[in-house]
Amino acid sequence: MKSRPKTPNLKVAILGAKGYPYVYGGYDTMVKELGERLQKRGVEVTVYCHRALFKDKPAYVNGIRLVYTPAIEKKSLTQLTHSFVSMLHACFTDVDVIFVVNSGNGPFGIISRIFRKPTAINVDGLEWLRPKWKGLGAKYFLWASKMATKFYDQVINDSDEMQRIYRELFHVDSQVIAYGANPSLSADASRISKWNLEKESYFLIVGRLVPDNNADIIIQGFVRSNSKRKLVIVGDVPFKDSYVDNLKSIKDDRLLFTGYVTDPEELKSLYHNCYAYFHGHEYGGTNPAMLKALGYGCAILALNTAFNQEMLQNGKHGKYFEKNPEAVKTLIHIAESEPDTMQALRDTARAGLTQKYNWDHVTDQYLQVFKSLSNKHG
Question: Is the pLDDT confidence value at 220 over 90?
Answer without folding.
Answer: yes
